């Protein structure tokens, strides 16, 4: 009789642990860096930005080639030029170099600003996708910044797939 009570108590305890395990929160993590680097929308943004800024980059490269040619010519002719001409050409080359540097800095700043704007749009879209996945999967908590998370709770691949689907449907509807 005593053994039956022990077995019954043990069975009840197992049932209680099973019920408690079902009440555990469902948690997922998302690697935000992977979303910004690997997602289809991020790749498209980077391609579009390259195309958008390519003309300005070409201007800078052309100017740098012009500077290199002017410096080479200046160095070859420096020994035969009068001091006034040396000063004039040297000043012109310095001005071209300064203009090139200013153009490069402006390009970098503009590119970073546009990249930030576009990545903010991707983050907003990713947040919508994450929320949809959380609701569909009945998640209690999704974290985007985690020091560690096991692969079993990482839903980054799901988010990347959904972003790719949405990017594909957005491209198809744009045609």
Short description:
The protein is mostly helical and 175 residues long.
Report on this model:
There is one protein chain. By secondary structure, the protein is mainly α. It has one domain: Skp domain (Protein Binding, DinI Protein, Chain A, 2-Layer Sandwich). Helices cover 79% and strands 3% of the residues. The chain has five helices and two strands. A two-stranded parallel sheet has the order 1-2. It is elongated, with a radius of gyration of 31 Å. The protein starts with a helix and ends with a helix. The mean pLDDT is 87.
- Count of helical stretches: 5
The strand order across the widest sheet is: 1-2
What is the 3D shape?
Answer: elongated
**How far apart, in Å, are the first and last alpha carbons?**
78 Å
Strand residues, percent: under 5%
CATH topology grouping: Protein Binding, DinI Protein, Chain A
How is the main sheet built? 2 strands, parallel
Percent of residues in helices comes to over 70%
- The name of the CATH architecture is 2-Layer Sandwich
Order of SSEs: HEHHHEH
What low-confidence regions span 5 or more consecutive residues with pLDDT below 50?
none
Strand tally, please? 2
Instruction: Output the structural class.
Output: mainly alpha
Number of domains: 1
- Give the class-level CATH name: Alpha Beta
What is Rg? Answer: 31 Å
| CATH fourth-tier homologous superfamily | Skp domain
Mean pLDDT across all residues, rounded?
87
